[in-house]
Amino acid sequence: MRKYILIIALIIATAGLFFIFRADSSDKGDHDCIKCHKLTNEEAQNFLKDGIPDVKILEVKPAQIKGLWEVVFEARGQKGILYIDSEKKLLVSGQLFDLKKKTNLTAEKLSEINKVDFSKIPLDDALVMGDKNALKKMVVFTDPE
User: Fold this and answer.
1) Domain boundaries in the chain?
2) Which of 6, 12, 60, 118 is 20 to 30 Å from 144 at the Cα level?
3) What is the DSSP letter of 56?
4) 10 vs 12: CA distance, rounded Å
5) Is 74 in contact with 56 (CB distance < 8 Å)?
6) Distance CA 16, CA 19 (A)
7) How far from chain centre, in Å, is Cα 71?
8) What's the pTM?
């Protein structure tokens, strides 16, 4: 009887070790945390509200680094980008670079989200200098007072 109990205990222990090592090995690079963890706009808002009280979340999507979320936000009229880890414990503020392509991914995204749609600028009462039908146009804002 003791032999059977010892054999069963050994089988259970071996199976337990198998699952522990299997779970541990999946965290070494193959595991994609974004498939298991989600970050909504509301969660990002709650995560950031203590540090940036008037923050408005514009977009949350997986970042180019596994386990990080890219959070596009607006506060006091300025847009910015922060990164939050998949466990919602860490905040990364800074630039993200792609070393192979030698590009600043954060700067590219900031340029994209801060782009002004030229067609939406009201020019009905504008002063026009030069050819108003020119291919390239420049708009200058000034305060006359």
Assistant:
1) 1-31, 33-115
2) 118
3) E
4) 5
5) yes
6) 5
7) 4
8) 0.63
Distance CA 35, CA 107 (A): 26
- Domain at 33-115: CATH architecture: Roll (3.10)
What pLDDT digit, counting tens, does each position of 47-63 carry?
898 888 889 999 999 99
b (16+ CB within 10 A) / e for 95-113: ebeeeeeeeebbeebbeee
What does the block give as tokens for 23? 């779970």
Separation of alpha carbons 63 and 71, rounded Å: 9
Distance CA 14, CA 7 (A): 10
- Residue 67 CA to residue 116 CA, distance in Å, equals 31
Q: Which residues contact 99 (CB under 8 A, 6 or more apart)?
A: none
